[in-house]
Amino acid sequence: MRWLAAFLILLATQLATSAQESGGSPRFLEIDSLNSGLPPVETYIDRDTPQGTMESFILAAERDDWDTAAHLLDLSGVDPAIQPEMGPALAARLNEVIEGAMWLDWGDLPDRPDALADNVASENPLAGEPRRNIRLAILELPDRPVPVRIARVKPADGDPVWVFSEQTVGNILALHEVFGPTRFERALPQFLQERAFWTLAWWEVIALPIILLLAIGAAALAYAGMNRAKHNQPSQIAENIVDTIQMPVALMVCVGTFSLVKTWLFTFSGAVNIFLTPLQSALFIIALALIAVRIVDAVLDRVVRRNMEELSDSEAADQRNLYTNISAARRVAIVIAFLVGTALVLIQINAFETLGFSILASAGAIGLILAFAARSVLADIMASLQIALAKTARIGDAVLYKGQWCYVEKINFTYVQLKSWDNRRIIVPVSELVSNSFENWTKQDASLIKSVELRLDHRADVDRLREAFQKFIDESDDVIDKDSAKVQVIGQDVNGMLVWFLASAEDPVSGWAMVCRLRETMLKEAARLDAESGNGPSEGTPFLPREREMIVGGRDAA
Prior knowledge:
The chain is α+β, with helices and mostly antiparallel strands and 558 residues long. Helices cover 51% and strands 15% of the residues. Helix 18 packs antiparallel against helix 19.
């Protein structure tokens, strides 16, 4: 039995060792001593759990009891001889960093000694796992990002406790230089530095609207300056560019002024920065994107409007492709800018750390709902990219849409702007244009065959009209491929016969002018020949159809 007991003890030891090796690091960090240079704490502090540590630190900070707050820091990197002086000073500076740069709800921290994550979704990798350190935030120094952590440490002569980690304590002074109160704030009267409501001091309540008014005033000045500069531009395209970027430039000046004044003079609390920082970043990115997009739009719109007729030429296919590619690149750039901007905002507010995976999952569900609600808009966006990539309709193409001859003037996210021959603008949803058939007269070749349709009397001599038609073809410079021009009788009914006069033109514009002149010429010739034939049925061969009248009468009328 002894050997069996020894075997079981050995097996248990091996299993424990392998479990420790496979299970990763222990649940605390072993150190020789913790804050040996500090005097004993005079009041009770709870360092058993992460929540207790943060609660004790906040309560000590509210009482300005920095001697007690120093016991909640791991001062292993500080000489024990100077810990009594450095500890309280570092605790006070850490509190100012927390108030100025972080948004903490210590109630969300684990209230267990092992910090086991039991309040997260099961899909979270941290679910059910004990932890020995917790990252509270990541703060950006000029040269590097710095995490703020609390860690569980075990001194050789004591039990494990939760304190701000040694690395965080080592970075307090550098963090305080960036996120601590500015010289201007320290010069403010004491009553302005007192707490007003929520987490805001009185100076914050007063400073926020003042800075906002300064930013709006700077934006108004920038807008007025851009408006003045618009009228002094040497060219129309430069004037259009300045006109289109007035509002985004004013927005950028507003955000920049607000950010600079806030950075130079004030360090707002974390409760304010948690909203201001992502809002500033989002507005700045929106302003930059709008400036770039509107410059491209102004240049493209001016070039297209000025060269619309030239773009319909057969030799302008490369230009139409270029303008369409620019339009597509503009839309792709907007989508990329939106995604990158959203990512930057999420990174700045540390969304993946502060919001939690469950909240992000909820945001994803909300996103799916919004996407379903806006599915028609999304369909139009995808359809616009489809048009741009497939080149079914390019900027400058001549198209026949629902019986109207138009040019493609703009291809936007949700609609296509068509310019009709009489300078009307037809706005067509992209999805409708993609789902319906339309004629593209310049897809491969701008040349096309135009036709004039005349209804003639059954007895008309078509050969005599062919002579006039051939003379027209020979004398017209805007008719191409003269050998293919022809006259054809395509049908007949009780009212007469239907004749087509067909001729080729180089492009839709010259074809329209040519076919109008052809129609006029053939009508004049048909009328002249009809007049020569006389009015009576025995006087010659009529060319234009006449209505037949039937006289109905009785004997009495005779």
